[in-house]
């Protein structure tokens, strides 16, 4: 498609267009920009890009490129991204032997069961290796468990206005845990009584953004979870099987679930970050938990969960513009963060 045009000239014009957009966005941020006929909005960017490159660019790539510039003009995207983020397609086929492949997958299976509805998105996906389960949670309240026979357990939570923000599996109690902006959901996915058998812990004062299980084998009748909220707090909550009986609220049910009164739980919390907690994770081999935030000062914390119950100093690391994700490799003994 590019053979019929002067690509070098088109590319220079495109880069000039991007420069003008960055200057315009910078002026807008500083309050110096006044709207005039030369303003570049999305429609103008789209039509100009299509004129320069024709059918070689796809609508979704133009949209993604424009969004990237508008959200962070300091980090300029590379021009190949307008053609699909450095990906290459030939004759509509792909081969696992191509050197450009990042992940080589020897076997894959497509699950045709639809786990989300239209305009819904997956907010959490968790693998449970010991049970060979995969758990997903969608923003609008669809919790799904896939087992190794690809049997699907599905439960739809009537969410109201709150959205699910994360999920995990409680290995001792055999429950799926999910957090919303205002509640903690515990779903007994194996219950034969009802697909929607479970509990809701409420009220939750701060908006919860993530959750993970603290894996310990010292007690088969309880599970501990970590949660992070939008004010930088990390919470520690221990749940036992007795809680399902002893701590039910007098208000009865919320939607399909029995209510557990959050006031009856001891939930230690500690402010570790000055911005949203993006992820929490417990590493059994290190006997430490990690939490991260877009906070540039307290970006990543790695320490014992006992630090959530006292005020002793924590091991923390600063990363410019914060940390959005992290993981640990036991073989290499390194922690990798992504900002």
Tell me what you see in this structure.
With 339 residues, this protein is of the alpha+beta class. It has 2 domains: 7-83, no CATH class; 122-338, YVTN repeat-like/Quinoprotein amine dehydrogenase (Methylamine Dehydrogenase, Chain H), CATH 2.130.10. It contains 4 helices and 20 strands. It has helices at residues 7-29, 42-53, 59-71, 243-246, and strands at residues 122-128, 133-138, 142-146, 152-156, 164-170, 175-180, 184-187, 198-202, 208-214, 222-229, 233-240, 248-254, 257-261, 269-271, 277-283, 288-293, 300-303, 316-317, 325-329, 334-338. The chain has a 6-stranded mixed beta sheet. Strands 1-2-3-4 form a 4-stranded antiparallel beta sheet, with no helix packed on it. The longest helix has 23 residues, at 7-29. The two termini are 36 Å apart.
Describe, in short, the structure shown.
This protein is an alpha+beta fold. The protein has helices at 7-29, 42-53, 59-71, 243-246; strands at residues 122-128, 133-138, 142-146, 152-156, 164-170, 175-180, 184-187, 198-202, 208-214, 222-229, 233-240, 248-254, 257-261, 269-271, 277-283, 288-293, 300-303, 316-317, 325-329, 334-338.
């Amino acid at each position: 498609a590019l053979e019929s045009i002067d690509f070098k000239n088109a590319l220079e014009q495109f880069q000039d267009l991007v420069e003008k957009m960055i200057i315009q966005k910078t002026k807008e941020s500083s309050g110096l920009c006044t709207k005039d006929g030369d303003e570049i909005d999305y429609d103008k960017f789209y039509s100009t890009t299509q004129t320069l490159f024709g059918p070689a660019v796809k609508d979704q790539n133009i949209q993604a490129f424009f969004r990237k510039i508008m959200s962070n003009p300091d980090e300029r995207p590379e021009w190949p991204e307008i053609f699909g983020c450095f990906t290459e397609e030939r004759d509509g086929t792909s081969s696992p032997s191509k050197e450009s492949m990042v992940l080589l997958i020897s076997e894959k299976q497509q699950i045709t069961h639809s786990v989300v509805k239209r305009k819904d998105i997956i907010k959490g996906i968790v693998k449970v290796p010991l049970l060979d389960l995969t758990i997903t949670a969608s923003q609008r309240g669809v919790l799904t468990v896939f087992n190794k026979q690809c049997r699907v357990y599905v439960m739809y939570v009537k969410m109201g206005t709150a959205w699910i923000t994360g999920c995990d599996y409680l290995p001792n109690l055999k429950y799926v845990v999910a957090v919303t902006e205002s509640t903690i959901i515990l779903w007994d996915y194996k219950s034969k009584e009802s697909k929607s058998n479970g509990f809701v812990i409420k009220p939750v004062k701060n908006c919860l953004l993530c959750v993970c299980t603290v894996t310990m084998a010292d007690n088969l009748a309880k599970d501990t979870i970590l949660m992070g909220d939008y004010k930088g707090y990390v919470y520690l909550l221990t749940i036992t099987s007795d809680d399902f009986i002893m701590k039910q609220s007098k208000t009865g049910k919320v939607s399909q679930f029995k209510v557990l009164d959050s006031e009856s739980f001891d939930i230690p919390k500690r402010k570790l970050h000055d911005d949203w907690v993006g992820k929490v994770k417990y590493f059994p081999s290190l006997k430490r938990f990690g939490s991260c935030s877009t906070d540039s000062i307290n970006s990543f914390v790695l320490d014992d969960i006992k630090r959530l119950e006292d005020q002793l100093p924590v091991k923390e690391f600063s990363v410019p513009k914060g940390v959005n994700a992290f993981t640990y490799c036991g073989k290499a003994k390194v922690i990798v963060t992504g900002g």
